[in-house]
From TrEMBL:
CDD domains: AdoMet_MTases. This is Methyltransferase domain-containing protein. Residues 8-50 form the 23S rRNA (guanine(745)-N(1))-methyltransferase N-terminal domain. One of its GO terms (biological process) is methylation. Coiled coil: none annotated. Residues 93-169 form the Methyltransferase domain. InterPro entries: Methyltransf_25, RlmA_N, rRNA_m1G-MeTrfase_A_prd, SAM-dependent_MTases_sf.
Length: 284
């Protein structure tokens, strides 16, 4: 059973209370739970497009790919780099841009097996992603919403995960508790290099993101996870391609060349950075 507790109305930030299969604020705004238990807290006026975020097809491709566990070492790297003081019973974790819920599902299961029970909330702007996630794991609160305006009160979470996503640091800082932690997971310079060499005539130099630091956060640790994996069918290769930005960026010729492949051996190169929220100094 999902809890869907301690959430805020996306229109006026008033607390939401649960009434059977809906959440309501004191001003009468009502959000019905979907059949599978998720709730859509993305009001129409906050949508930039009619169907924001990953499409139904992209979500299906990501789910097929991730279910093969080629990225399971990323789950392990997340857990082994996770600061131990924040790996305790009862911590409140948000996966901001959770996609179809692979990481939050795996993390919850592994920690549960270690007798660590955490509260998990998964949020994504794509209703397709959240709908798929809500079928995967019923013990998570799944929300359609935007990182730009999280439908939660201040200091709601102890940890925010942003995995291959779109961080909005001021909003993450607001939603994190005092000294709360943020994990950013991103591609490193050699990520899927073999595929990129086929897709592009030349490979651009790698530009690290946030190399000058991030406002409101201090960097606690930085690590990389590098390994190889193989894909042995054209369907798997297309599923991977569909979940990367390369599907839109690569040239026609590059994509046609990838269509000829029946197998490929690939490098995964992932960067993990843990940040801690910095408290504002009150000069008053
Ligand atoms: C590259 S996918 C990563 C998904 C998931 N974290 C994973 O690694 O499997 C990026 C996700 O961010 C979502 N997204 C895009 N803009 C967003 C926003 N403003 N707020 C929340 N999610 C967003 C997309 O719908 C998509 O599911
Ligand atoms: Zn309201």
């Amino acid at each position: 059973m999902t809890t869907l507790e301690n959430l805020s109305c996306p229109i006026d930030s008033a607390p939401l209370s649960r009434y059977e299969r809906s959440l309501k604020c004191e001003h009468g705004h009502t959000y019905d739970l979907a059949k599978t238990g998720y709730v859509n807290l993305l009001p129409v006026q906050n949508k930039r497009s009619k169907d924001p975020g990953d499409s139904k097809d992209m979500v299906a491709a990501r789910q097929s790919f991730l279910n093969q566990d080629c990225y399971f070492p990323v789950v392990e790297a997340i857990l082994s780099s996770w600061p131990k003081k924040a790996l305790v019973d009862g911590i409140r974790v948000l996966d901001a841009g959770c996609g179809e819920g692979y990481y939050l599902g795996k993390i919850g299961k592994i920690l549960h097996d270690q007798k660590i029970n955490i509260e998990r909330v998964g949020l994504d702007i794509s209703k397709w992603a959240v709908a798929a996630a809500s079928k995967r794991d019923k013990s998570v609160s799944w929300l359609v919403g935007s990182n730009a305006s999280l439908p939660v009160p201040d200091e709601r979470f102890d940890v925010i995960l942003c995995l291959f996503g779109f961080p909005i640091f001021c909003e993450f800082s607001r939603a994190l508790s005092k000294s709360g932690l943020l994990l950013l997971v991103e591609s490193g310079p050699d990520h899927l290099i073999e595929l990129r060499k086929i897709l592009y005539p030349s490979i651009h130099d790698y530009k690290p993101t946030h190399s000058d630091g991030v406002a409101n956060f201090e960097l606690l640790s930085e690590s990389s996870e590098n390994y190889s994996f193989a894909l042995n069918s054209q369907v798997d290769i297309q599923n991977l391609l569909s979940m990367t930005p390369h599907i839109h960026k690569a040239s026609y010729d590059g994509r046609e060349a990838v269509k000829q492949l029946e197998s490929i051996s690939l490098t995964a190169d992932i960067k993990l950075r843990w940040y801690q929220k910095i408290e504002e100094v009150n000069h008053a």
